């Protein structure tokens, strides 16, 4: 993975966190890792625990960023969510999986789309 690609991903995650905070969500974790993988953002939306995948792309020749969240990635997120939830002291009755897709036009501008409840763990 190139440094440019890593910088683009980090910038996208930063923008996504700023956006979620503007939506009055509380960021609990960034780049949380477990044995099964990494979750970009874990946030709290009132009483709902949100696991958020961020996809940032400059070019759309391989499809829209949200199309890159494959079924395999969704399954991995669901398993990571289960591990995270088991480790929490307070149980969460509501969990959802969001996707934030960012099309970066250049270093200063782009389009951010938030797909709330983009997939259900029960559908996987």
* Spatial strand sequence of the major β-sheet: 1-2-3-4-5
Spatial shape: globular
Main beta-sheet strand count, sense and barrel state: 5 strands, mixed
> How many separate helices?
2
Helix content: 25-40%
Q: Cα distance, first to last residue?
A: 29 Å
What is the structural class? Answer: alpha+beta
Low-confidence stretches: none
In N-to-C order, the SSE pattern is HEEEHEE
Radius of gyration: 14 Å
Q: What fraction strand?
A: 35-45%
Kindly state the number of beta strands.
5
The average pLDDT is 89
What features would you describe in this structure?
Helices cover 30% and strands 40% of the residues. It is of the alpha+beta class and 124 residues long. A hairpin with a 2-residue loop joins strand 2 and strand 3. The termini are far apart. The protein has a five-stranded mixed β-sheet, sandwiched between helices.
Question: What's the SSE blueprint?
Answer:
Elements: H1 3-22, E1 26-34, E2 37-45, E3 48-57, H2 71-87, E4 94-104, E5 110-119
Parallel strand pairs: 3-4
Antiparallel strand pairs: 1-2, 2-3, 4-5
């Amino acid at each position: 993975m190139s440094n440019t690609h890593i910088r683009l991903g980090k910038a996208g995650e930063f923008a996504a966190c700023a956006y979620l905070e503007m939506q009055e969500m509380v960021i609990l974790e960034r780049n949380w890792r477990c044995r099964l993988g990494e979750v970009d953002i874990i946030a709290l939306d009132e009483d709902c625990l949100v696991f958020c995948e961020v996809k940032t792309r400059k070019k759309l020749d391989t499809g829209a960023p949200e199309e890159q969240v494959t079924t395999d990635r969704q399954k991995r997120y669901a398993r990571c969510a289960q591990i995270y939830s088991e480790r929490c002291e307070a149980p969460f009755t509501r969990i959802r999986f969001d996707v934030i897709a960012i099309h970066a036009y250049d270093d200063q501008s782009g389009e951010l789309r938030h797909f709330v409840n983009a997939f259900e763990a029960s559908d996987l």
